[in-house]
Amino acid sequence: MQYSYSELSKLIDHSLLSPTMTEAQLESGIQLALAYDVASVCIMPYYHKRCVELLAGSSVMPSSTVGFPHGGHTTKTKVIEAEQLIDDGCQELDMVVNISRVVSGDWKYVEEDIAAIVKLTKQAKRKVKVIFENCYLTNEQKIHLCKICCDLDADWVKTSTGYGTSGATMEDLQLMLDNVTAPVQVKAAGGIRDCDALIKVKQMGVTRVGSSRTAEMMDEARRRLGLAPIVTVPATAKQSSSY
């Protein structure tokens, strides 16, 4: 295989966002992320402070969500959410655009909404991923959002929450890659479910993938690389959601 284990594992933001996950499952999910040495754990905000504690001293970053999953919070509410996460030690914030305002064509509001979170995270020396929820948008709207995010210097544009009608598609990923300029990067979420898909999006230029299928993907990567399997992760952590 052309990539090393860490080149693939460090693509993954391990998703612990399903609203029905128990605290025991959140705990074991964090341990899974540590065992597989992923890029980050993206966890529900209420459990984020605990996640920061468990990840301390590791190379796995704590991340969480703002305005999730529909983006319909007021900008002030999103700012308060982001401030709380930053205070709790969050390193990367995944914020959802106001989808209603996007489809209504209220681009001034959309830009100001995104700008408020980007400004806050930059001041705190944190990173922000802007979630579009592409399944509800036209190509023109996706391109316009890419331009806004580049103008505002967001860190990533992200396809989906994983809780819309569909997740990342190869067509959308290519569209976003074609319409961002460095240093803005692209994150895929929803629909990347196996090792081959993970490798494909990396080859395209995607630098992060949100997934709850970390164990399945990375077990296969380890098998192909001739690495010993990871056997220390509790089985309760190995579960899938819409991601």
Topology diagram in text:
Blueprint: H1 5-9, E1 12-16, H2 23-36, E2 40-43, H3 48-55, E3 61-66, H4 75-87, E4 92-96, H5 99-104, H6 107-123, E5 127-131, H7 139-152, E6 156-158, H8 170-178, E7 185-189, H9 195-204, E8 208-211, H10 214-225
Parallel strand pairs: 1-2, 1-8, 2-3, 3-4, 4-5, 5-6, 6-7, 7-8
Description:
By secondary structure, the chain is α/β, with parallel strands linked by helices. The chain has one domain (5-237): Aldolase class I (TIM Barrel). The chain has 10 helices and 8 strands. It has an 8-stranded parallel beta barrel, surrounded by 6 helices. Strand 7, helix 9 and strand 8 form a beta-alpha-beta unit. Helix 4 packs parallel to helix 6.
What kind of sheet is the major sheet?
8 strands, parallel, barrel
Largest sheet strand order: 1-2-3-4-5-6-7-8
In angstroms, what separates the terminal alpha carbons? 25 Å
Q: Segments where pLDDT lies below 50 for 5+ residues? A: 237-243
Q: What number is the mean pLDDT?
A: 95
Q: Can you write the helix and strand succession as a string?
A: HEHEHEHEHHEHEHEHEH
Integer-rounded radius of gyration: 17 Å
CATH class: Alpha Beta
User: What name goes with the CATH superfamily?
Assistant: Aldolase class I
Tell me the number of strands: 8
- Structural category: alpha/beta
What CATH calls the topology is TIM Barrel
